[in-house]
């Protein structure tokens, strides 16, 4: 059974660790992430961007696919299926389609409009027992065509959205989606601490979790981050392992071109990467 992310995130916040929210793209990603998390006995959130939802032939198909893989693999850890950076319409569609958690990203709207829409969607999600994340202050970089400069979130605005009863809050603290540029200044811990204080200890979400140095991730967790989003990192390790396989000519040996063989090194790389990140987040052995 898929669960809301509320309980696992609250436990993580109390226990000073974080839950990984790994973005899924296809069957291979779902299988590999669930396999790694089951082995590590870690709760997990499967993130689905609206673009990835379209790629996987719609939100209903994604929900069915995740449920079926979950049951087939006899997964026992808590698993939430979560809309990542949802639009207002997308969040409603996912609530309808059976997601157990949604994010409404209204950070590009004027604050008043973000507030109104967040309020409505929080009430809707909670009426169905679904957890909800909202965002204040853009996350840098590009995701599904939306480009944000990554401003720092305003602690006062964070407090207002937190008071609406959102379950966890994404707040810009200098984090960026995608590969971090060489001149990146790092996370702004002073702002993170201010936000944690102004929101009275609301669990916070760190987007752009790929490529942040380990010490910074761990420090962010001590300051109230309870969910770390990871997408790019798994794409990079999958691509590198697949390239190695093809460059070594393995697709030309026997039936090495069979997708079950061709995609295996990439899947194994995802499994290893997810396990490493779970250790960094401290969510291993926290499933039960
Ligand atoms: P990365 O692709 O940088 O890991 O960011 C993922 C993310 O924040 C999804 O919302």
Explain what this protein looks like in three dimensions.
The chain has 288 residues and is of the alpha/beta class. The model has no long low-confidence stretch (mean pLDDT 96). The longest helix is centred in the C-terminal third of the chain and has 18 residues. The protein has a single domain, classed as Aldolase class I (TIM Barrel, Alpha-Beta Barrel), CATH 3.20.20. It has twelve helices and ten strands. The strands form two sheets. The protein has an eight-stranded parallel beta barrel, surrounded by ten helices. The chain has a two-stranded antiparallel sheet with strand order 6-7.
Short description:
The chain is of the alpha/beta class and 288 residues long. The chain has one domain: TIM Barrel. The protein has twelve helices and ten strands.
Low-pLDDT stretches: none
Overall structural domain count: 1
- Helical content stands at 40-55%
Q: Which distinct ligands sit in these coordinates?
A: 1,3-dihydroxyacetonephosphate
Main sheet record = 8 strands, parallel, barrel
N- to C-terminal distance? 14 Å
Mean pLDDT: 96
Please give the number of β-strands.
Answer: 10
């Amino acid at each position: 059974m898929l669960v809301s992310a509320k309980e696992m995130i609250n436990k993580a916040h109390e226990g000073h660790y974080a839950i990984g929210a790994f973005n899924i793209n296809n069957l291979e990603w779902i299988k590999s992430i669930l396999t790694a998390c089951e082995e590590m006995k870690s709760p997990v959130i499967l993130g689905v961007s609206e673009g990835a939802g379209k790629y996987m032939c719609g939100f209903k198909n994604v929900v069915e696919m995740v449920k079926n893989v979950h049951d087939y693999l006899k997964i026992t850890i808590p698993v939430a299926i979560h809309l990542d950076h949802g639009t207002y319409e997308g969040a409603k569609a996912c609530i309808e389609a059976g997601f157990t958690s949604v994010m409404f990203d209204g950070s590009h709207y004027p604050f008043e409009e973000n507030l109104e829409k967040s309020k409505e969607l929080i009430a809707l999600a909670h009426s169905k027992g679904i957890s909800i994340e909202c965002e204040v202050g853009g996350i840098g970089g590009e995701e599904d065509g939306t480009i944000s400069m990554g401003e720092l979130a305003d602690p006062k605005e964070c407090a207002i959205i937190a008071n609406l009863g959102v379950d966890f809050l994404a707040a810009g603290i200098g984090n960026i989606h995608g590969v971090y540029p060489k001149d990146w200044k790092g996370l702004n811990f002073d702002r993170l601490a201010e936000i944690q204080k102004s929101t009275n200890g609301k669990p916070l979400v760190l987007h752009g979790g790929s490529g942040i140095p380990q010490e910074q991730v761990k420090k962010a967790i001590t300051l109230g981050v309870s969910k770390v989003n990871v997408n790019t990192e798994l794409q990079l390790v999958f691509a590198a392992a697949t390239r190695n396989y093809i460059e070594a000519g393995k697709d030309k040996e026997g039936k090495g071109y069979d997708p079950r063989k061709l995609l295996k090194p990439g899947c194994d790389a995802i499994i290893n990467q997810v396990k490493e990140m779970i250790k960094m987040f401290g969510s291993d052995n926290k499933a039960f």
